[in-house]
Every structure is written in C-alpha cells, then in structure tokens.
Amino acid sequence: MRTLIVEMIEPKRLGELVTVSREFCEQPDIVAVGTGQIPGSFAKAYQVEDTVAANLVSDLASLIVNEGYEVILLTASTLGSGIAAPLSVKLSAPVVSEVIRIQPDLVVERPLYGGKAVASYKLNKMPAILTIRRKYFEAADLQGFTDSSLLSITEKKVELIAEKEEKTEGIPLEDAEVIVSGGRGIGTAENFSILQDLADLLNGAVGASRGAVDEGWAQPTQQVGQTGKIVAPSVYFALGISGASQHLAGIANAKCVVAINKDEEANIFKRARFGIVSDYKKIVPVLIETLKEEA
Amino acid sequence: MHIVVLAKVVPDYEVPAGDFELTNSRAHARYKRMMGLYDENAIESGVQLKEKYSSSLTIVSYGIKGDIQILRKAVAMGGEKLSLVVGNSDDPHIIAANLKMAIDKLEDVDLVLAGQQSADMDRGIVHGMLAEMLGFTFIPQVAKIEQDGDQWKVIQNTESGSSELKCGGKAVLSITSVPENVPRIPVVRSIFAAKKKPVDTLSEIEGDAMLIDEVLVNIPKMESVCEFLPAEDDMAETAKILLSKLREERLI
C-alpha cells in the first residue's frame, strides 16, 4: 500500500514511523518537516520548512490525492494532532489517533478511557490516517540520507513568531533508562530538587505527573502520562504519585515501577513491581546516601 | 466577541483501572457522569478571555439530556448560556458535524475553545474536524491566548518547549492544562444563577460516519504484583534491598 510518513526531522520519531510503515509497504515516502538532511532511505521524499501544522494541511491533502497515498502516518504529537483531524475532513478519510498496535488485515488498536480499555478498529476505506503513540514501536535504524524535493506551502494561516526550547540538563526524558517522577505528594517545587539528586546518581531524568505540572512545580515538558510524554524506562520511580489511569497510560511500557507513597491504598501500587509505603522524604535521602557510598 | 467553549460530559475518569468495567463496549452505566478532564481548563481559559475582553461566552455540548445538570457547572464557571445537541453517537465525524450545526446557529462565533481531548474516547480529533468543517484555523495544545488587534496570539505547548503563534480570523483552539488555567471553583451565587440561565436543546442532524468498524473493546490485564519492602524501622536497609533487587535484574 502506498504509505506516506509526515513527521519532523527527528531520527527516533522517524524511526518509529518507519517501523510502523513496514506493516503496510516495503518503503514509504516521506514529507519531512523542518530543516536539515532527512535520515533514512525513502522511496520519495518531500521537505517543508514550515513546522506549523495549520499551514501544511491543504498542500498535504493535494499531495495525498495526486499521488494516491493509502496510509498516512504521523506521530501522536503537537504536529500530528494539528494535521490529522483537519486532513481527515479534507480527504473524507478515517483517522485513528494514538495507535499502539497494528494487527493483520488493517486492524489497529488504540487505548480509550485513559488506557483502562483498548479498542480495535478495522480500516475500511483508504486513505486512512494514523497517529502513532510514541514508544510502542521499536525505532528502525535509519541508514544514510534521502534527497528531497520542496513541498511548497500555498496557504499560510498561522505565523510562527518564536520557538522556546525547554533546556533540560542531562538525558532527555524520552530516552532515559531511569526516571524519577514526582506528583502532588512532593508538596513544593523546591522539593523536586531531591528527585533531581536521585536521578543524577542513577544517570536518569526527572518527570512529573499532571498534578505537579498544574501546580507549577515542574515544566509541561516534564509531564509523563497520556497527554504528556510516553516513556519506556527500565525503572520508573513514582514518588507521591497516586496513579491515575491517565498517568499509568504514559508508563505502560516501563519495565519496572518503584512506587513510594504514604497511602498504602494508592492506585500506583497496583502497577508497581516494588512498593514502599512511606513518605518519600524518609526514603529518598537514604537512597541517595547509599548510592553515594557505593560510588 | 463571542467565544464558544465545547464541553463533554463523560463517565467518571477517576475510576481506578482495577475497578473499571465495560457494558456494550463502553464504560459501565453505573459510573457517575462528570465534565471532561481538559474541558474545565478550556472553560477557565474562556472565562478569563471573557473577563479580559468583555466577550460573551456560550457553552456548547453534544450529549444526552441528562447531561444538562452537569453542564450547568460549566455555565456557573462563567458561561451565559448552554446549547446542547441531543445525541448519543460516538463517531467523531458525526459529533463534529453536530457541533458545527450548533455553532452555525449562534451565527456570530469568533473563537471556539475545547479541551485537548475528551476523557472517555481520548481521541483528541473532534475539535480539529470541527475547525475544518467550520473553515476556522485550528491550533492544538494551546496554553495561553491573547487578542492582538484583529489577531490571536497564542502559546502552544510542544514536546520540546513552546511556540508563539499568531493567526487572524476565526479559530478553534484546543486547550491543554497549565497552572494559569486550573479552574476556579464557582461561587455559590453563580451556581444558583446558572440554574436560571438559558438552555437551548437542539435535535441532532444526520452526519456522515467515519468509515471504520469498531471490532472489539476490551480491558487489558494489569499483571504487575507489587512486592512491598519494609518501611517502618531501618530505611538504610530498605534502600539497600531495593537497589540490590534492581541490580539483580539488571534494571540499573
């Protein structure tokens, strides 16, 4: 099936979509969004520098119709969510968001009810648009680069004034093998520094629940969960996190969850491999001290 | 300026996974119904704009008649009226077409705000479909909105930080949660006043469903069994046990 990937030029995101594309075709085409070389080998590549979703929809729709693409793949991201739904109306095409599994015969799975249930859908009409949830598909190793032709933008609806990148020291959350995450139980923004100390010793990153982000104790880019980052670390320390299903949806692929919470009834213990019913302030400094002694 | 905020009433999204049950492939009817997780952030954003720019604010919803009493909370937060399209489809295309119909009837809408995704189907696509049907500009994941002359200046949260964007004309913005739009609890006077505010109920129109078959909905098994480590006496010992177990399994 003719498959088109539409994605920012970012090797891991592209790699995951290339893996998904192999369910539908041997080699996909790509519309690469942003500047720089396009990593990987694609049958045909287009490039567009404009990264604002609203500006891309019309020209993508024309390209898809003219080239006869049957499957359109995007990451479930700010860009993907800005393109997928308007594009589906333009093309009268079905759209399935946050896909986590592809089965044979064009059946795709996605979570609903905050990850408490999973639905399977059969695609009956092409083209079909899929946004793929991150960290559910192993990223393909992208070899070499593909030359591209320019995809011109004819309808600039939105102007990009500025972009601000939240600099995080150390390993990015999405790539961290160890994540130390805090929720409302952490109490204050200042208390997050102890999480950073533990994360640093374990060569990890600091995450946060939606509640902690809403309190302003952590950056939105640190939010882990269904509507934040989807992560897949070896160890996920959940400190003062109750374990709402929307948060658990973001750590479904964590190999081991260590839950530390004063409330022994907290839902997070149902997902945890190891649990400590205690105030994190009692155990985390001791963990830090032990790690320092062992270093 | 006339702002519309979309609100959806959903089954209790705080039901823990272990207690969650389905009937006919949907959340069990016994769960209490409540306003969507992000819809309250969208309403709060709408109310702040209303206060800043002296706008009018209408709550628009698609759902069952029984939702009206829950949607009155949205009105109490700062809405002036409620427009409910009565229907029970789960199809995003049909829902978007019905929301369009309700917005068209209001005639003078400048800005539509919606939570970034509903707390039941979790699709995050209805607002984008609605924007395209209305011919409005669509921007997702919006954290902050300001009017700048005849344009909207918005801050959009992205995976790596944020973008400052500007657009003219009419727009649909999906709202994410940030500390600035955590909903204020309505005062008692507003709750009583909301009971007297107008409610328009509209019959749904027949829309074209998305060509896709729902094959199955099931509840995934959570297989993790938690091993509780001692936490009463010697925390140093507990820390050593934990680190040793993580190392044994080569997790750290």
UniProtKB/TrEMBL annotation, chain A:
Binds 1 FAD per dimer. Belongs to the ETF alpha-subunit/FixB family. GO terms for molecular function: electron transfer activity; flavin adenine dinucleotide binding. The gene is etfA_1. InterPro entries: DHS-like_NAD/FAD-binding_dom (IPR029035), ETF_a/b_N (IPR014730), ETF_a/FixB (IPR001308), ETF_asu_C (IPR014731), Rossmann-like_a/b/a_fold (IPR014729). GO terms for biological process: fatty acid beta-oxidation using acyl-CoA dehydrogenase. Residues 2-168 form the Electron transfer flavoprotein alpha/beta-subunit N-terminal domain. It comes from the Bacteria. FAD binds at residues 184, 209-210, 223-227, 240-247, 261. This is Electron transfer flavoprotein subunit alpha. Keywords: Electron transport, FAD, Flavoprotein, Transport. Pfam families: ETF, ETF_alpha. Its cofactor is FAD.
From TrEMBL, chain B:
Gene3D superfamilies: HUPs. InterPro entries: ETF_a/b_N (IPR014730), ETF_b (IPR012255), Rossmann-like_a/b/a_fold (IPR014729). One of its GO terms (molecular function) is electron transfer activity. SMART domains: ETF. It comes from the Bacteria. It holds the Pfam family ETF. Residues 23-209 form the Electron transfer flavoprotein alpha/beta-subunit N-terminal domain. Keywords: Electron transport, Transport. This is Electron transfer flavoprotein subunit beta. The gene is fixA_2.
